[in-house]
Amino acid sequence: MINISRLLKVRETARDVEKHHNKRADEVPKHLVRYANVKAPMVIWNITRKCNFSCDICHLGSALEADSDELTTQEALEFIDQMASMNVPMVSVYGGEPLTRDDFFTLADHAHNKGLRIILSSNAALITKETAGEIAESGISYVGIDLDGLAQIGGDMDVIAGLEKALPAMERLRDAMVGCGVRITIGSFNLSQMPSIIKAIENTGLKRFAICQHLEGKDWK
């Protein structure tokens, strides 16, 4: 019997869905997790407000220093244990910039050892070759690169320039066998640039990018 879906390089077939739909999220391949018998919600964790950028359009109001009431390392480890006990299928880690936490890889390693799947959101500025290797070793399978920080130049937003600045980090992640994509914020300040932005993203060979709606505020309209 010839499997047409496989010949067409379709990653998910009806047989795959039937095979895995009654299993737990940690028992199925990563690209099929949405078909698992998931009864716990995905968690979005703003792990810190600290960031190496000060973007005017930041939804969290990130700062150059961490808040005094952020979770300590021990508290964060206990929170990870709680999520694991609830069989949370996936944790999306945001900031601020998560990589500004000195204990980030301690937490990521612990989450991986507990069977949690971690997706990292980063502005890419701190992703060196060594950091990309640590990301891979900690079991993080995907990094979503937020281009807003790299794109903000003075009082303007230049997403294409931000994308070009992020390319070295993307290459480091690819070399480390970590998947990556980009996320941009869209508003009236860059809506007219979208065709050029999409073309530039296509030219990188990226398979995924996300668009976030801008919440009007400050000097951005």
What does this structure look like?
This protein is α/β, with parallel strands linked by helices and 221 residues long. The protein has two domains: 11-40, no CATH class; 42-213, Alpha-Beta Barrel (TIM Barrel). It contains eight helices and eight strands; from the N terminus they run H-H-E-H-E-H-E-H-E-H-E-E-H-E-H-E. The protein has helices spanning 4-7, 14-20, 73-85, 104-113, 129-137, 148-151, 159-175, 194-203; strands at residues 43-46, 91-94, 118-122, 142-146, 152-153, 156-157, 179-186, 209-213. Strands 1-2-3-4-7-8 form a six-stranded parallel β-sheet. It has a two-stranded antiparallel sheet with strand order 5-6. Helix 3 (73-85) packs parallel to helix 4.
Write down the CATH class of the largest domain: Alpha Beta
Major sheet details:
6 strands, parallel
Task: Give the termini separation.
Answer: 58 Å
Mean pLDDT over all positions: 81
Cofactor: [4Fe-4S] cluster
InterPro entries: Aldolase_TIM (IPR013785), Radical_SAM_PqqE_MftC-like (IPR050377), rSAM (IPR007197), rSAM_sf (IPR058240)
GO biological process, one term: heme biosynthetic process
Keywords: Iron, Iron-sulfur, Metal-binding, S-adenosyl-L-methionine
